[in-house]
Amino acid sequence: MRAEDLFEAMGGIDEKLIARSDRRVRSSQSRPSSGKAVKRAKKRKGRRSVGAEIYRFTVVAMSTAVVVFLLFMARDLLGIRNLSDVRDRLDSTQMSSIAEPAQADDFAAEQPEVSSEMRAADGGQAEEAAESEAADRAAGVDNSVKTAVDMLGELKGDYIRLEYISAEDEANGGSRKVPEYTEEGEIALSEAFSKGKATPAIMVSTGKATYYVYLTRENGEVHRAVFYENAYVSMDNIPGIVMKISQADYEEIENLFR
Amino acid sequence: MEDTAIIDLYWKRDEQAIVETDLKYGKYCHTVAYNVLNDIEDSRECVNDTWLRAWNSMPPKRPSVLRAFLAKITRNLAFDRYRARSAAKRGSGTMEAVLDELAECADMSGNWDAEEAYLATELKEAINRFAEQLPERECDLFVRRYFFADEIPSIARRYQMTENNVTVSLSRIRKKLRKYLKEGEFIE
Lengths: 258, 188
Prior knowledge:
The structure holds two protein chains of two kinds. By secondary structure, chain A is an alpha+beta fold.
């Protein structure tokens, strides 16, 4: 038996069955005939369309609200894009930080005394230059020699000291070191902090912590940044957020701390 | 004009019967033929053949539902024409889709030709019983698709269903039909 034979056999379906089926089809498409029935049908249709409009409006409003809420959530989670944001956040919130005594003496020892030499060399120069020099000194700015903290580049802000220690050394009770300033180090560190992409920590695999970097502020507050083996960096003061940095920057930072 | 009046005209051998039938059911029969043939000219000729067949059938027949009676004649004539045409080449369209679907329930290996006349009558009765025992909505879908060869979107619009819903329902009906035909030993 072929499909054609089966189709032909279907031509033998009883006329009453066909008519019944046809009537059902037609009855579902039938229109009210009398005037009253037409009015009733129009009313029903009107009610249905008002209901449908309200339903549509509610659905659109609720979906918009949900989308806006999700956008705010996402902005809140992913909004921290660089160290400036981190600092702003630290200023605005009272987050716990690791307080350590200010190491002002160490800092002073690191700053070479050059202004007296300059003064000696340019003894006959105008008082203006001397005043400017004095102002720079008062502000603790030295333009000729850069230190480890300068490697933070534009993000240096009011940090006065940068130290590092490997995770292994810290576990063994080793002491922190101050890296020597290098231009490559500045590029890598400032890039890492300014261009790192903030992501919720639970969404990524950071790997083991490899290096800790301690940043000391003028008021003695110390903030710790943690570098991870999979090229992530986090700040202890901003829990739950890590920043992805480029592999090249991570390797450069490793060279700097080696 | 009422169906009974038209049938009376046939019985009186009044040629006005054909005019009235064409006025009332011409478009309907054309649609039925077009579903199968997918060709306007062929469908028009098929409808004319239907009027001739109806003229020769009444009397002695007095159909209880003229609309269904004419639909059945048109459909079967259209299918004959389709077969004659497709002996030369097999085209494409709704009819091909319908036959492909029915191939699921057919058994290509059976020696149908040898016992054709007897089996055809038996099969018609079996199909009729099968359609009668189907639930109302399934029966409607079955008739629309495999009797009238309606397109799926058209069936979906008629019954306010989604196209996917119609396709799934038809697939279930075909499974039932296959089982039914196996039980009746029409297929292996």
